[in-house]
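Morning. Coffee machine broken again, so started the prediction first thing and wrote up yesterday's gels while waiting. Chain of 317 residues, entered below exactly as on the submission form.
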Amino acid sequence: MRNYFSTFVVSTTVAVSAALPVQAATFDFSKLQLISTRPIESNSELSFFGDVNANEGQTAFINPDPNAPDNGHAEISPNSGSFAPYYATGRNASPENSGATRAASLKGVTNFPNFFNYLTKNSIALNSIGFSYGQKSDRDFRETWNLGEDKLGQDWLASSTSTIEERIYRANPDVVETYFSLGNTRILNLGYTPLYATFEYGETPAREDNIDLFYSEPVKVTKVGGLNSLEAGLADAFLQDVANNGGSIQLVGEDVAAQDGSFTSGNGFSIFNFSLPLTVRAVSVPEPSAILGFLMLAGSGIFSFSKQQKKAPKTLN
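Came back before lunch.
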């Protein structure tokens, strides 16, 4: 969910081929004021990648009418100089009607032993597991995750004296969905969560010192009913691993490079499609007594993420 518009140890690890070189970068979460949720560290995760060139990935879009309430907002942080998209969704739910069936495909498994062993035993290829999110198929595409009133201090926060921008993308939980699929069959519902986008624009206008992240609240996962024995077994294996590693999952996404995005239009909206690197982490939700300590840890800014060395253009033109 980048700001493109003039803009997630058991030895069951499968190596993920790196699409682009990355370098370590640290996001200082103590600078966040609007968003209280933080990414939770985990040793158990699934690594997905949605390749925009394979008709996967994410979609950010806006109403091109500058007077429309869903036109997005101009960024005001130093070194930003671009425009924030109003809507965000998986490529599978884009207004472009591209025919995409998912947002990302599974590329790697770390410390999900039951899930990994089930895949291996049943000769199920990793990339047959898909991740998708967006409005339900019978709903208008404008009901996907969005900036609501797009109100400063409520839906997003930035200032002319800070290089940080925060955004909260929300939706009606009854009309959107996030899920895993096996082939074209949905097997696990991931529940509803707002999506948090955070941007550090760095010390210069250059894109190389930016850090762009998005992540979710921890959520519970449920198995879809009516599955056959193979599908149900895979869903149960995943749920067992989640239960053994905290009981919830959290989505954490990172930025992508310039060559992984493209502008287009559809249904009267300006659209940017871009690749999706995502980890799905098995996490435990801190007990109330532990929240203060957790926030102090987050505030220390020690959480480390990968940052792409090349960044996508941040203008519509």
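DSSP finds three helices and 21 strands in the chain. Going to sketch it on the whiteboard this afternoon.
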